[in-house]
## 1
Amino acid sequence: MGIERTLSIIKPDATERNITGVINRVIEDAGLRIIGQKRVHWTFEQAQEFYEQHLGAPFYPDLCKFMSSGPIVVQVLESDDAIAKYRRIMGATNPVDAEPGTLRRRFAISMQQNSVHGSDSPASADREIALNFAPDEIVG
Ligand code: IDP
Ligand code: MG
């Protein structure tokens, strides 16, 4: 496995409720290091590009509207096995299926407003990090 990087997003439902700090605490307690972080507000078009793998899905237009509805915190996380590790602490997409103690089980409002994003593979992580960060914005 080795040291990996993954892209995390704290979504608008979480920034709105002022819970970015508690989410970062969970991330750091799990041994993931936050080596890049910024608070931004995406345009609808930026959300469309980020989620282009879901183009054509019934939830895609509403997802892009939601992800551009308010501030988000984009982050690069680094650790051994970072991609799978972060997916484990996030929990399942639908919070009713998420394990107790996971971020989504604790904080998600709905399947759409599920508080956090994490890359699903090394290829996705590379693409998502490059879309959101310049090299000099990542300091390991
Ligand atoms: P993931 O975030 O767990 O990787 P994906 O299937 O990649 O889940 O979906 C991306 C995001 O789209 C989800 O996190 C969620 O916000 C939203 N989403 C996915 N499926 C649905 C759905 O069936 N209804 C509403 N929103 C959905
Ligand atoms: Mg996904």
## 2
Amino acid sequence: MMSEIRVRFAPSPTGYLHVGGARTALYNWLFARHAGGVMVLRIEDTDVDRSKPELTTAILESLEWLGLLWDEGPIYQSQRLDRYRAMALNLEHAGRAYPCFCTPEELQAKRARAEAERRPWKYDGTCRALPESERQRLRAEGRPAAIRFQVPDSGQTTFDDLVFGRIEVDHRDLEDFVLLRSDGNPTYHLGVVADDLDLRISHVIRGADHISNTPKQILMYQALEAPIPVFAHLPLILGPDKQRLSKRHGATSVGAYREQGVLPEALVNFLALLGWTPPGQKEIVPIEEMICAFNLAAVSKSNAVFDLEKLAWMNSEYIRNLPAERLLPLVKQELSVAGLEPYFAARDQAEEQFQQAVFLLQSRARTIKDFAGAFRAFFTDDFPYDPEAVKKFWKDAAVPALLGDLAARLAATEAFDLAGAERVLRALAEEKGVKAGVLINAARVALTGQGVAPGLFDVMLVLGRDRVTSRLNRAADSMKSG
Ligand code: GLU
């Protein structure tokens, strides 16, 4: 009896953690947390040419960053080769697998012939019926042999996938697949079944690209007289053009989104909805609610579309609601990575000023990167003027003089507060016969470099009087000299 819920996430360290892999990890994790079960992390690193230890490290880091912590492992397949060999031999001894002496050249030639004749190719079973004496003779000659699983000639394998429903495969459509290569290395099927069995995995939750592997693995469990886990395959993730998500569509690794300033909780929420609709069709779902509501039966088998705009929206929602104790260190880190020492650091009340700037900008940020990017002027005097904003808001010939006057009056006013600054600006506009909006827009570009920013008077207070006047004068000068 398998009563305990045990799942596994089994990445191959041949690349970074792909968002599809992260979605698989997340669904495993949610399923385990929901059921009070265990998630095992297994590194499928038997492909020595393509697996790299630094990629394993990167995968572990990405999982940790997402908060998807495993309960057991990591278990490395490369350390279990003896176990796989023993299992292949067991199957051979039980008469469920056999040695195959066909060389790669022979197999290739047969495949080519089948292709030329437009026949679907599957291994023709040449070595299936070799008499034992012949096997011994070939072995004695030192001929390398793979071990192939012997698929029954007739009948079907059927399983009830928790997402895709009943799946039935005719054994005639399966070939005698290799378990152990002639160099002694296991194939994917052998490693997966040996591990899932030894780890007492109750539910195999993985991408739909593995559906066609499942009947072969079920046949192995049956041959081993072992309990068969429940299978749940997750829908594919497509790009907006409905093609399978790939580099062509932009970043595909979790690490790349981290670098782009996406919050882990936003990415987790976004990935969770790639195939699963939480009750009530809510979009923003806190992780505790996800754990509570997660149900594989509610996962759709239709392909999911990776919508970058939605991720950006979700990220801004999460940033908007991020508690100060999470947001402030993230922004500081971002500024320091970008080489921007907040100028507030040199002043009294440094921390308070910094915080005011962050809180003013919080609801406008789409990513954490914005703080060192579009919002740069709030943290350093060294910022560029956006050429589009300049063209639009500094085109009036009167602007330099107006900004100079505004600087002088703000320097002289008694009350440099929200209402006071606004009064000064409106009085000046009226006196000079220009619309207040013209002056507001021109001043916004002067203070922030941007045509779009928080309310001008809020910006002024956050920057402080000295900085405001010197930036207004600097802009006026740059226009005169430009
Ligand atoms: N290592 C496989 C992959 O990365 C997963 C195998 C499995 O889940 O059965 O796709």
